[in-house]
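[Q] Does anyone have a clean structure-token version of this?
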Amino acid sequence: MEEKGSISIHTENIFPIIKKFLYSDNEIFLRELVSNAVDAVQKIKRLAALGQYNGELGDPLVEVALDEEKKTITISDNGLGMTAEEIKKYINQVAFSGASEFVEKFKDAKDANEIIGKFGLGFYSAFMVADLVEIQTLSFQEGAEPAKWVCDGSTSYEISAGTRTTRGTDIILHINSESEEFLSKGKLNEILDKYGKFLPVPIKFGTETQSLPDGEDEEGKPKTKEVETDHIINTTAPLWTKAPADLSDQDYLDFYKQLYPFAEDPLFWIHLNVDYPFNLTGVLYFPKVKNDFDMQRNKIKLFSRQVFITDEVKDIVPEFLMLLHGVIDSPDIPLNVSRSFLQADSNVKKINSYITKKVADKLAELFNKDRKSYEEKWSDIGLFVKYGMVSEEKFYDKAKDFALLTNTKEENFTLDEYRDKVKDAQTDKNGQLVYIYTTEPAKQDSFIQAANKKGYDVLLMNSAIDTHFVSSLEHKLEKTALKRVDSSVASKLIETDEAVESVLTEEQSATVKSVFEKAIVKPGFTVEIVGLNPDEFPVTVTMDEFMRRMKEMAQMGGGMSFYGNMPDSYKVAINGNHKLVNRILQSTDAAEQNALAKQAVDLALLSQGMLTGAELTDFVNRSVELI
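[A] Here you go.
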């Protein structure tokens, strides 16, 4: 049996294109060929189960062998095998028509996965690293003869009698000079571990030495012996393929450690398992959130039939859950995917929605089952929940029942519970409910205490997402506004019909205003005289709530760059009823008036953390002189 011919692609340009466009991702050749070998093994098992093959199956195995001297890599399996006719059908006729159109369309392509996936070129990825590829195969079919196929990377091939004596296939790659990095045991082991760690058929790569029990010595102590055994690189039945009822908490924790050896234990996890209208399995873990969010992103691994694809799952997993860790496996996502595929595929969109619902259901279950434990985890869970409420309408609808608001006393409330708590004391004269919050409780402590004296409750809003969460709540909650505790003096945070009048005359107010304007040398500060209780601060410096929030969003890339470029502006509220003001009015020494005003303003700036550098030094020196 001998035959020569040309591969049916109608162009001489296909192999140079494969090599050129797939070169940057050339390590995937091993993923493709090993995956094909696994498929062949699984198919013969299915045929045997259906009674269509009655021969001896043997132990399923795929073997990768490296011969550094011959510069070859061989991928072997004991699967279906092929006849010469099947080689012609599946290897020679590349799975597309109109190759000229292909050449033109992808001459500027950059995405290797897009090319391979769209045109079924998995086997041909071998030519990214090999200048000669040989197939030795023997079909499972009764009476089949072994066949050999050889191709040197041109469109010419040769089929002849093969030498294989057992069912299955060997793919032998003669590695080219540009790809000799793959003639390294360490490199191949790294690639196999990356892509094949959880393949469903054992993958052998070389051997390893193991210490096994070998009876006892003369003193009765256990002995061991060194034995060479197959080095199997994968776990064939990973945790996500098993039924949750068969798994313990320790099983989930052990698997997490296998995925992330140096990570802290997760808070909890969600086991995904759905077979309609799409197939999806996996386990998602909620980690303890660290400040460096970027370090924790892209920790979800995407698999297709236990073959690793990527850890960039942005289009499959909702953005707000990108900090989760774990594994997703779906045969409905092809092994070779491109970003454009993920963005357009309907199954991907369904999977995205399913994961959102599954996470919401799990959080609701945790909240309802053990609220105390849920509250203890809230500092970690809260970031996910708030981000989801801001970015996903459907998630907000579910999360509003288990999202928590935490106040400065570390008490937790659902949205409905908090409304009931503060509605009597914090509803303004127009019937609008006002939630007061702090972003930096230590820095804003004086404002918090002033608000507490008025009977107001203050919420903690100090996580990375809270700037957006505050705006989202205002948009969602009916007749509700949120104000930062230092956005105004305590008595002005909530407008009421009760107003404290200033005891100053218009002339006195003008005098005091002039003194303070001269004492403030910073630009962007506007002085106003207000009537407050005598026991409130003599001077309070605040930034308008709306302007401050817009500037914060601009800093976070929230599309408010116009506000971000505007200079800071502050209101300086002078308490006309404070004794300091009376002391300034009674003084006839302009220098003393200026010093008193300057000291009061600096105290206000200091309480906001706005007094630094030389100004802080001057304040300290002035304070020492006043002692």
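[Q] Thanks! Anything notable?
[A] The two ends are 109 Å apart (CA to CA).
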